[in-house]
Design brief:
Low-confidence stretches: 3-65
Largest sheet: 6 strands, mixed
Order of helices and strands: EEEEHEEEHEHEEEHHHEHEHH
Distance between the termini: 56 Å
Helix content: 25-40%
Number of strands: 13
Strand content: 15-25%
Shape: globular
Mean pLDDT: 79
Number of helices: 9
Radius of gyration: 26 Å
């Protein structure tokens, strides 16, 4: 495989996304007026009051390995998987394109754990019954920092450059369709960049792919489902690991590429069925290069016991976050949990309820302690009967 030597990235430091919704950082508070008693469903005894961070996080050089920089004349696709740029110089100067790809190769794709629980309710609307899907919780947790090497990461897990397809592998090598290359004509990354820039075809694109390997998603999914099951949740549970920002595509400067990215124009062609003519035209005139991949390993092997990890194992990650995930699920959270939320959960203790400070009055402290125990018992009773079932 052809490679371009890449510089070793600096040690990764995980920091929360400053643009993340503040609702992701919450803690519990138990006051006299906050108590809710169980009804037909499990009440949110945890995560009652939000904790909103006011201090802005410090920015360090290594933080940029988790927050992707914005390219000139670029936008993110609706599904957030592709960054597309129409900056002309990337299609005109091989040096500029190569440097941009080197820079982008330092940033891993955004790797997330998402846990969604839903149930269906049958509701009567006048004389008509309809089934409505209710989201009980939608918890998201960023795992991108687990792909960023540190000073203690084994040398075999450090990136060494770009990967290009072997000669016998089908890939877009500057044609309309995927082709194979003869062994004697195998090209490296520099050659592909030059062939793109020097191409005489006006409508063309060049794509860099980011790929994650050796993460045991099945093992982590099993651990998360077991954790949610321990709360006696009876609804429909879905655990997934979405990967976004996994492609960077450069489009050459031409009116076809400019218009094909306009959402309103695309919908116009859909609704008027003009896509029947435009799609074959674009396929015929467009030349594609998708020959460069940067690989981000999670570990040294897909599974098994003898594995080295970039940061930590799936089980270690689960042990670190399981209390926070459980608390967020029981609190029926819909949003992100972050480091601040995890620390607040640890401070709350096993029951997930905020510590009640001493008032200095023995009678008041005793009453608050009794109330805390009552809330804990009420929650446990509600959980014992199950929650989130279809109705």
């Amino acid at each position: 495989m052809g490679r371009i030597a890449g510089s070793k990235p600096p040690p990764g430091v995980y920091r929360d996304d400053p643009d993340r919704d503040d609702a992701a950082s919450t803690s519990s508070a138990v006051l006299m007026e906050d108590v809710e008693y169980p009804d037909s469903d499990l009440p949110a005894y945890e995560d009652v009051a939000p904790v909103v961070g006011t201090a802005q996080p410090e920015y360090h050089e290594t933080q940029s390995y988790l927050i992707h920089p914005e390219l000139p004349k670029s936008h993110i696709s609706r599904d957030e998987t592709t960054t597309a740029t129409h900056y002309p110089i990337y299609s005109q100067d091989a040096g500029f394109l190569g440097q941009m790809l080197q820079d982008q190769a330092k940033y891993p794709p955004t790797f997330t754990a998402r846990i969604v629980g839903t149930h269906t309710e049958t509701r009567r609307n006048k004389e008509k019954q309809e089934n409505v899907t209710i989201t009980d919780f939608d918890v998201r947790l960023d795992m991108t920092h687990l792909l960023v090497p540190s000073a203690t990461t084994h040398s075999s897990l450090l990136r060494s450059g770009f990967e290009t397809p072997s000669p016998g592998m089908k890939a877009y090598r500057g044609h309309r369709t995927k082709t194979v290359a003869a062994a004697e004509s195998a090209e490296d990354a520099d050659a592909y960049i030059n062939s793109y820039v020097c191409s005489s075809f006006p409508v063309r694109s060049f794509t860099l792919n980011r790929h994650i390997i050796h993460h045991d998603s099945l093992a982590l999914e099993s651990l998360l489902k077991s954790l949610i099951g321990s709360t006696n949740y009876r609804g429909h549970l879905n655990v997934s690991f979405p990967i976004t920002r996994k492609r960077v595509t450069v489009y050459s400067p031409c009116w076809q590429n400019d218009y094909r990215e306009k959402t309103w124009l695309r919908w116009f062609f859909y609704l008027t069925f003009l896509w029947i003519f435009s799609w074959p035209y674009l396929w015929f005139v467009t030349r594609r290069w998708e020959v460069m991949t940067v690989v981000f390993p999670y570990s040294s092997a897909p599974d098994g016991r003898s594995r080295d990890f970039v940061v930590k194992s799936e089980h270690a990650f689960f042990q670190e976050w399981k209390a926070s995930i459980r608390r967020a699920v029981l609190g029926k959270m819909q949003g992100w949990i972050d480091e601040e939320y995890r620390v607040a959960t640890e401070e709350a203790g096993r029951d997930g309820l905020a510590r009640i400070p001493s008032t200095g009055n023995a009678t008041a402290d005793g009453a608050l302690g009794f109330l805390r125990q009552a809330v804990t018992v009420g929650r446990d009773v509600a959980m014992a009967g199950g929650w989130g079932a279809d109705s």
